[in-house]
Amino acid sequence: MKKVMVIDDDEKAVLEIASMLEGHGYTAAAFTSGIHAIKTLEAVQDVDLILTDIMMPGVDGMGILESAQKQRRPVPVIVLTGHGDIDTAVGVMKAGASDFLCKPISIKELVIRIKKVLEKAELADEVASLRKKLEGLNSFHSIVGGSKKMVEVYELVGAVASTDATVLVRGETGTGKELVARAIHNSSGRKDDPFVAISCTAMQAALLESELFGHEKGSFTGAYAAKTGKFESVASGTIFLDEVGDMPPEIQVKLLRVLQEREFERVGGLKSIKLNARVIAATNRNLEKMVREGRFREDLYYRLNVVQIDLPPLRERPEDIVALATHFLEHFNRHHEKIIEGFAPSAIEQLLEHYWPGNVRELKNAVERTVLTNPRRWVERISRLDAARKQGSLFGDYPAKLPYLKAKETVEQELEKTYLVQYMKQENGHINKVAELMGVSMRTVSRQLEKYGLDKFLFRDRQREHLPEKLPT
Questions:
Q1: Residue 388: what pLDDT?
Q2: pLDDT reported for residue 402
Q3: What is the per-residue pLDDT across 307-356, written as a single tens digit (0 to 9) for each?
Q4: Is the confidence at residue 392, as pLDDT, over 60?
Q5: What φ, ψ does residue 277 adopt, rounded to 5°?
Q6: Where are the domains of the chain?
Q7: What's the CATH code, domain 141-310?
Q8: Does the pLDDT value for residue 387 go beyond 60?
Q9: Distance between the two ends of the chain, CA-based, in angstroms?
Q10: Residue 403 pLDDT > 80, yes or no?
Q11: CATH of domain 404-459
């Protein structure tokens, strides 16, 4: 329950506001003295928001704001002011207040403003907390992005890091799946042990089996000496299986046994070796579809998918694009000993217009290429970057970036999710109506909601409870 301090020298008004907040689920404490409020704040240090009048005898709203900002965790402040004190209120806002309201106060408006300020403060706390947990990573490998979707990723990383649960990281090529796996490892109790990554793509079954499990001398032609596999060499660290959807069927069987029994044998060996490592897998494939088609074992899918982390494509978090580009610009300035001050409006427009089928990896490469070729102190144009949406083709430069089957799978998922979300909004979250519009069964719609991590109740319009329009002044 959020704790709010209400400060006003008008005793009747402060008690009524505090009572109203109590009725809306907040813990509210009323103060008629600014000095008393500050002493309480310093003693308690556990306040989520301050609602204060600006014009008060003794310590006024500015004094309250200064004290709130000096706390170990700065407390957001909403100031209340009369119509004649607008200039003063603007000054307090410049000094760091989160919001202000004019008297007489609309209760509806006050509730909405309080909610928004608290949500913003919570978001800032979550990002700060995650960055602190990930501070073991160097600046280039830190996760960049403050969008809502990335904050959800940060929350999951923080939640699973302290556990031994197997994690499946899903996302398109270039979204940073290995980066997330490393973040989990570096935020866990295994951070002092090895992190070993191995790609399951384009590797023959026999070679992949030897890489994962090792082999004994003479176990096959060319095995002139015994070899320790990744599962053995990682000890109590973390093994990252990248693109696990490309794993050959015969290796899927062996991996399933490893996850079930927590032990394995080297190729050609008889001795069982205990698995002490944590397993994190990643894929850009539609594993559910592969299971239905018999190309991926269903039992292995459920063993890998204990905790699922979905990485959004860059086009779904456009608010992060400029921040990421600036991050890469700073990095490559140092790396290539360049002095480029930033992006001109024309370059920013170009960044935001591009479809980014290659996601963060494509953005990083584009920025490095630009740093190497840009002759000016400001970037006016991103080198060799044409906005995919303006190329005359609905799918832009997909052919240059993705193999046909992966592109087809990606487009199918985008189309499916787009229609699902649109119909869920349109039909107020009623699965039966959405199923009818999409021409599929209700069970299929439910599976799609689960697949994309969507809750049907998020699409329900909840009526606001009736509130009186004004508080007495």
A1: 45
A2: 63
A3: 999 999 998 888 888 889 988 998 999 999 998 888 887 888 888 888 88
A4: no
A5: -80, 160
A6: 3-127, 141-310, 314-390, 404-459
A7: 3.40.50.300
A8: no
A9: 27
A10: no
A11: 1.10.10
Q: Domain spanning 314-390 has what CATH number?
A: 1.10.8.60
3 state SS for the chain: CCEEEEECCCHHHHHHHHHHHHHCCCEEEEECCHHHHHHHHHHHCCCCEEEEECCCCCCCHHHHHHHHHCCCCCCCEEEEECHHHHHHHHHHHHCCCCEEEECCCEHHHHHHHHHHHHHHHHHHHHHHHHHHHCCCCCHHHCCCCCCHHHHHHHHHHHHHHCCCCCEEEECCCCCCHHHHHHHHHHCCCCCCCCEEEEECCCCCHHHHHHHHHEECCCCCCCCCCCEECHHHHCCCCEEEEECHHHCCHHHHHHHHHHHHHCEECCECCCCCEECCCEEEEEECCCHHHHHHCCCCCHHHHHHHCCEEEECCCHHHCHHHHHHHHHHHHHHHHHHCCCCCCEECHHHHHHHHHCCCCCHHHHHHHHHHHHHHHCCCCEECCCCCCCCHHHCCCCCCCHHHHCCHHHHHHHHHHHHHHHHHHHHHHHCCCCHHHHHHHHCCCHHHHHHHHHHCCCCHHHHCCCCCCCCCCECCC
Range scoring the smallest mean pLDDT among 53-62, 130-139, 166-175, 440-449: 130-139
Per CATH, 314-390 and 404-459 having the same topology is answered no
Quick one: average pLDDT of 146-169? Answer: 90
**At which residue do the structure tokens 């009747």 appear?**
12
Whole-angstrom Cα Rg for the chain? 28
Which single residue is written with the structure tokens 């370059």?
Answer: 347
Q: Does domain 3-127 have CATH number 2.120.10.30?
A: no
Q: Residues, the chain, total? A: 473
Split at pLDDT 50, 70, 90, the class of 365 is very high
